[in-house]
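step: validate -> pass
step: tokenize input -> pass
step: predict -> running
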Amino acid sequence: MAGKKPDLLNEKQKRFCELYLGKHFGEPIYAYSEAYGISLEDKSGYFTSAANSTRLLKDAKILAYIREIQPETAIADEIVDTEMMFTIQQRGELGAKVAAINTYNKLKGRIIDKLQTDNKLEIIYVNHANQITGTP
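step: predict -> pass
step: emit ->
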């Protein structure tokens, strides 16, 4: 067709983007393996999916398509909760883990930030019996 812009991505690349934003949100290895029909049962399939999904997520055309199809409200509470739980349970990035635990405890009301009159931040811990303590 004259004047029609050709598709920049093939069907598998588009499927990868859709899976990455949907069923396998934030899990590029799983999105890649499903889009390209690669089994993760063996190491070679896993490593292939890991390497190629990383490569795709650095591709400007892939990133542009993801931005194009991503709804404005793509990050739902359930997704954020899932990611926070993943961060809390992981063992590799301890700084991120501690930050996620603190955020979770604040959301649950176990930690209350309190600004003192001398402009110092004091963290007050609330234990499971809702008793305020000075230590975690």
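step: describe -> Helices lie at 11-21, 28-36, 43-56, 60-69, 77-89, 94-107.
step: cleanup -> pass
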